[in-house]
Structure formats: C-alpha cells, structure tokens
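Pasting as-is:
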Amino acid sequence: MTKNLEGGAVEEAYRIDDQTALTIIHHLLREEGLFVGLSSGINLARERGPKQVITTILCDSGIRNMSKIFNREWLEMHHFSPDLPLESIFDKKIH
C-alpha cells in the first residue's frame, strides 16, 4: 500500500497479471483516447467481464511509462502484447 493510503479504509483489493493491465490500458488508448498508467488499468479490471458500468478514479497518466509499457520493442522483449482484444482478458480469474 502506498503512503497516501495509509490509515484509510480499503474496501477491496485485488491483483491482476501484467498482461491484463497492459491489455486494458492499450485498449483505453486506442478506443477511448485515454493515456493512463498501469494503476488505472488495474482499477478498471473487474471479475464481472465486459459490458459493465464501472466508476473509478484514473489515478495516473501513462507519461512515466513511455519507455516501457508504451514502447513496442520493450513489450516484445518481455513477451507482452499490446494488441490483445479486451474480451480475451475476462476469461482469466482476477484475485
């Protein structure tokens, strides 16, 4: 937990794998024009699957991630795909 959340009430916490977060943030960039980082991608991942209404705070931009998660060469070197369809991630279990 980060310092800015210390002492706060956390209703729910969960983890998702890196590829799932990457799929979400690249989808948001392509389809919605939202340039967000992995924290925002994690916030938008839900167990309920596609076609759900989700309200969240987009807590980071993608600017700090330009050299990695928005760099196709870096993604390929680390065996990540920015082009997976969003629907493909909802078959995975989110913890």
